[in-house]
Design a protein that fits this description.
It contains three helices and eight strands, in the order E-E-E-E-H-E-E-E-E-H-H. Strands 1-8-7-6-5 form a five-stranded mixed beta sheet. Strands 2-3-4 form a three-stranded antiparallel beta sheet, with no helix packed on it. The longest helix is centred in the last third of the chain and has 17 residues. 22% of the residues are buried.
């Protein structure tokens, strides 16, 4: 039996496959794993209390040496962990179908994600529904438990 799970899917902003579904109001990155429409994940995005904190996070990312890890706060209990693997290659670990996978990104993509934490950033109107869907799902889970 073949598994559709890739342990290291790679994404770039100029990728031909439409892997980025959207970024919701709390900066969660909605991704189709390997561009596969049936496997979707949400990676929690950076949450900052001030513009100065955003600058510090961006500077920390830009100066991250190869082999090092950067852990940043998010809107959820989860932390955003970024591993610098090699020149222009970063990994963000996040489970897919119960198995931990390292999602690989180039520098430009990770930096673009981090910049969505800017206080003036607004998600696309259609991406508001992504956050609303998550909220509805959490309410359903609460009422079942």
């Amino acid at each position: 039996m073949q598994s559709k799970l890739s342990l290291a899917p790679r994404y770039t902003l100029d990728d031909e496959s439409a892997w980025l579904i959207g970024i919701d109001p709390v900066r969660r990155y909605w991704i189709k794993v390997d561009g596969e429409t049936t496997i979707k994940i949400t990676i929690p995005g950076l949450l900052i209390p001030s513009l100065e904190t955003l600058k510090e996070a961006i500077q920390s990312f830009r100066s991250l040496p190869v082999g090092a890890t950067l852990t940043l706060p998010t809107f959820t209990r989860e932390r955003l962990t970024i591993h610098h693997l090699t020149s222009n290659l970063y990994a963000i670990p996040h489970p897919v179908n119960g198995a931990l996978a390292w999602h690989l990104f180039d520098r430009e993509t990770v930096e673009a994600f981090l910049l969505t934490a800017h206080p003036d950033w607004r998600c696309a109107p259609q991406d508001i529904a992504l956050g609303r869907d998550t909220l509805i799902q959490s309410w359903e889970l609460s009422s079942v438990a």
